[in-house]
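Risk register update: the risk that structure generation would not scale has been downgraded. Supporting records follow, first protein first.
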Amino acid sequence: MYFHKPTLCALLFILINTSGFAQLSKVEKKLVKHIDDENDAAITLLKEVVNINSGTMNFDGVAQVGKVFIEKFKELGMQAVWEDGSAFNRSGHVVAKIEGGKGKKIMMIGHLDTVFEKDSPNQEWIPLEGNIVKGPGVADMKGGNVIILQTLTALHKQGLLNKMNITVVLTGDEEKSGRPLNLSKKALVDAAKWADIALGFENGDGNPSTAVVARRSSSDWVLNVSGVASHSSQIFKQNVGAGAINEASRILHQFYEQLSSEKFLTFSPGVIVGGTTVSHDTNLNSGTAYGKNNVVPKELSVAGDIRCISIEQLKKTQEAMKAIVANHLPQTDATITFSEGYPPFSLSDSNYELLEKFSQASQDLGFGKVNPVDPGDAGAADISFTSEYIDMGLDGLGLGGSHGHTIDETGDLSTLPMQTKRAAVLIYRLTKK
């Protein structure tokens, strides 16, 4: 369900005004008013940055969007800098920071890049019916970046921001991470080590009635198998054995048999090439193979991914896969290698506690309860790199919308002030204590 139908928007308006914000403090009511007063300016800013192409590999475009936000953060009295990404072959990141008290340290996470490069047909802001706008990255996640900025602006206008400890990281490579990850994600990790709480403004499942309490990891594996090439009439004999394809079939089947029923764990063989001779480019996820029906296959390569809910589950899965691979069929050999990837944003009681605080803010504002997204449905995101260091975190606080990562991506502008109000009240309450 998305909040873009006029009838639903009207219902939200009625709920807000009939409630009278009875559960809000005087300061919180002022935050709400400021956000309403500045909503047109927020939409204008969103349109400006959506119309700047910032596909991940368009380094100049990513930097241009970053410059827009750096200037805005500086106007709020924050230290805002551009961190060059040449060391990891990407444009770079925006890091903005303010430290003004002894309260909770909060990091806010967004990203500047989109999946729409210069050759994409999706290049501009196009208003559709009602509050819906089509455009590259409008929901994923330039809308979320504007929510971050407008939240901090509202706090600034009430004289609150300079008493808070907040770091904003807007990465330039969320959609296509630079390598090595220890360099491309260093800004996130450094901020997480400093912070107590992480708030991610990705658009989650696009539904503002939900938020993300956990995300699964995303990393890759490659299986290489070899056998003895021979005339097919000799297969299974002692000196020839089972052949590479039979060995790979055994391994993949046992992966499925032993691991497929575990909750929150998935593993998917995505590419396979095998035969007498094989060429497999794991960077391009493509390959060629040559063989004959009457020749026992000599080589095979498989590439796939793993998604887990915790570091412990990932390590356990990798060890199980290694053990399966090591139990070779006659006259075959096989090795499996694992690459670095996105860690899990792990399930925790504290994340659910933070969701309850966010949901309470939403209800006090008249927007209703916020429910958790099923972690099995939540893909990897930048907040995953914070999980090891923070006390609690929550993601999916961005703009409502649909059809992300497609040329039909849309954002629902009616959710822009709603999400901003929720974030502003939450942060005020978190830091007030």
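Supporting record for the second protein:
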Amino acid sequence: VGLLVALQFFAVVAGVWTAYRLIDVLVSYFFFRKGGRPKAKTTFDSLLIPLVSRSLKVFVTCIGIVVFAETFRLPVIGVLSGMGLGGLALAFAAKDTLSNLLGSLTVLIDRPFEIGDWIKTENVEGIVELVGMRSTRVRTFYDSVITVPNSLLITAVVDNMGLRRHRRHKLTIGLECDTPPELVDAFCEAVRELIRRHPYTRKDHYHVYLNDFGQKSLSILVYFFLDCDHWSMELRERHRLLVNVLEAAKELGVEIAFPNQT
């Protein structure tokens, strides 16, 4: 009898241990390549895969407890009932924590943003630094860190600036009011040509036109898109294009109107 009990106990423990090892093998298959180096996956994968692994192990542990109780004829119904009541009480006591956990799972599965993306919500704007089980940390552009509970991200409107295919720019250039019409046309066409020749501009959607008569200038609308991966590159290429605009105005003899100061 003692040997039979020992064998049954060993079989349950061995089954749970084998399930653990299978889960580790699956995690290694999806997360690591040969040689032990991580596969080229996103940062969210490094967060999601361990979370799934731990969840599966908890599930296997619960199944092992139930099988152990059934094998040794323990009062399973009473245990499960007690666990159910205890779990209900725990859920009420930790509803905020569970809400944040659900929010983190939603973020990890839906992936509205990646770590390193520039995001904007109703109250937060900055670069995502960390996605945890309870909160997401965003570093603002004045170098502080804002901690956002993940439960708020379920219903929040998140504008992911990092997923922009192109970066829009709209500006107005004022020309002196006495600029002849032919020079206005020549200047607009010169700016269009600069946009067409610029290596990082969108060539199928841009506008350069005389748009308004201001009180002290002729307003030229310049509307274009830059194809840049990051903000520093965007600033550099915008600077480059605007300097070329100044050079074109100088070559044409067009005077740009600047605000008068007294």
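The first helix runs from residue 2 to 31. On this basis the risk owner (M.S.) recommends closing the item.
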